[in-house]
Write a structure and sequence with these properties.
alpha/beta, Leucine Aminopeptidase, subunit E, domain 1, six-stranded mixed β-sheet, 5 helices, 6 strands, about 20% strand, binds adenosine-5'-diphosphate
Length: about 170
């Protein structure tokens, strides 16, 4: 799988699937989650309410589920719940799982290209360098059918951190 690092707004990505840094409720929030919900339009909330009928207690940390992309350029959105460091969720395996489970979700829907944000590096309080190390380790050891992973950073500083980690 080819790995590309770039800066920009992930909602503009023309990949098969964009990964959302969701929370367990799947009902939207700030940061990437809010931007994705605005870009996808109101049908995304309806789809997420439907998912909550399957995940009545919310989507567990480290898991990933897909919905359509609705009004976004990407065909799919893969919602994953990163560990919240501010709530004491400090296990790197949980963050790695977000990357690997998102790739698994991409395989199930047949997505060949995927874009990730810096999962857990915002409101959830993880250090950007740590997220980069864990994320790149997960992406670079992937051997399945997804051919392209783009990591879309929201600032040039964040992009530099990921470039150094790579
Ligand atoms: P979390 O709750 O998992 O920490 P956040 O959405 O708060 O998720 O932040 C994750 C990262 O995404 C942060 O580095 C933030 O700057 C970045 N980010 C916020 N909005 C966007 C966007 N539209 N596109 C790409 N990255 C974004």
């Amino acid at each position: 799988m080819k790995i590309e690092l770039t800066s920009g707004d992930i909602t503009n990505e023309r990949v098969d699937a964009v990964v959302n840094a969701a929370n367990s409720s799947l009902m939207g929030g700030g940061g990437v989650d809010g931007a994705i919900h605005r870009a996808a339009g109101p049908d995304l909330s309806t789809a997420c309410r439907g998912l909550r009928e399957l995940w009545v207690d919310g989507l567990p940390v480290g898991r990933a589920v897909a919905t359509p992309g609705f009004e976004m350029p990407a065909q799919w959105i893969i919602h994953t719940v990163g560990p919240n460091r501010n709530a004491g969720e400090t296990d790197p395996a949980l963050l790695r799982s977000c990357f690997t489970e998102s790739l698994r979700a991409a395989e199930i829907i047949g997505a060949k290209s995927i874009a990730f944000p810096a999962l857990s590096a915002g409101v959830y309080g993880w250090d950007m360098a740590e997220v980069a190390t864990i994320g790149l380790a997960a992406l670079s050891s992937y051997t399945g059918p997804v051919t392209l992973a783009r990591v879309v950073l929201f600032s040039d500083d964040a992009l530099d951190v990921w470039k150094n980690a790579l």
